[in-house]
Specification:
539 residues, 15 helices, 12% strand
Amino acid sequence: MNRHHWWRDAVIYQVYVRSFLDSTGDGIGDLAGVRAGLPYLRKLGVDGIWLSPFYPSPQHDHGYDVADYRDVDPVFGDLAEFDRLVAAAHRLGIRVLLDIVPNHCSSEHPWFREALAAAPGSPERARFHFADGRGPDGGEPPNNWHAMFGGPAWTRVTEPDGRPGQWYLHMFTPEQPDWNWREPAVAAEFDHTLRFWLDRGVDGFRIDVAAGLYKHPDLPDSPDPEADARTRDSVNPLAWNQPEVHDVWRHWRAVCEEYTARDGRERLLVGEVSVPSAREHAKYVRPDELHQAFFFDLLGAPWDADAFRKVVSEAMQDIAGTGSTVTWVLNNHDQVRTVTRYGEPAEGSGLGAARARAAALLMLALPGAAYIYQGEELGLPEVVDLPDDVLTDPIFRRTGSRARIRDGCRVPLPWSGQASPFGFTSGTESAKPWLPQPEYFAEYATHRALADTRSSWHLYRDGLQLRAALDQLGEGSLRWLETQPGVLAFTRGDDLVCAVNFGTAPVPAPVPGTPLLASGPCPPGELPGSTAAWWIDGS
């Protein structure tokens, strides 16, 4: 594998900090828990970790409402513990990426509080999107946009003198006001933040809502104002993917290159980029912009050989054509877990579980980088029956609907034992995780997974070991093979074939002359529609 540019074929593990491992017994995961779990991740074989936000926050959106970008919320630890975590990770050869949230902050951020206390037209309000309302008394929002998490994208404020006043923009929730990146002070503040964490030794940043930041300067009405709320995605062309955003990534890339020039250690920028096509996606990973951007089309593809082939081909053509590599992802903290998404209605090890294993091998065999969401390596299903009174997702609070809520994939990990908290918390067995774990999580606990060589954990570990050992995996190209309908197959070099059976056809034989070493979710033909195999030179 190409280790000069480590990020080009790296496999990064997403740590959702509050659900990974709790070291204090309060039921919430923390940075010390992440540090304690590093040997587990080292054994799995990942190249780095991406930490979800741990900054001071009122937690209206579990840390994506940031009140202070340059500190640690006491519930997760402190800066000294963060430094210990980075040092421990580096000793194990694990790089550390932070989640940074530049599109919006918390309504409790000091700058937003200053804006509320200031007058219309003030420099304090210029850092956000404040505007006068429409109608004779200004009682209507400035435009018709809707927030992604439901409801209008505008909230009216009460001015310091007690009168109803201007409105401010929030594309997610009222507790998350959007920054105005047309104001130079905002860019300067984030420069300070980047350097603060880079100086503490981090290896890069995952950038939340990377196609956001800039809005259309006139803030006009949208022809489809409810598109974001309906799709739960950033599709309003007036609020996302504005051309000026690319200037931000060019500058951030220059900052990272500056640090790399000092010590030769490459820093990574990976963006959460939701755009209409692979061609638009490719613009974010041009040589002077982001190193990587998550390619979500594979995650969103239906379980169909032709759909997967189309998605992979477009990515290889448009994204790899920029000189970057594709960044593959099957799951994250905002998505239904893969086992459930591929057809598993509840706990168990049926079709959805086998398809998830097959998809994992497929992803790890593709050229480029890959990101794994915590618990996917255990084969965890989505927890679909959480009671309403424990749900914390702001989507549920704002819409009253359970459709596409995200709590089910954020239930704390099971580590050991037969009953909750399954070793997640260091407290007594009566300690309650912040979201309840179902009884069947005992079947997925890490201590059981490590002991069972047939588990999904071993499948992931074996795949990662092969990626590290074989030059033809990771960065590079692929060549499609002709197959019968319902089967997807490609070669990586001359002596490795990846084949996935999406239908009921038998898995094809390896290329003549290629020695066989099979690694897959089950023996070929055992579960129709769910088998996958890698063929490599095992001689």
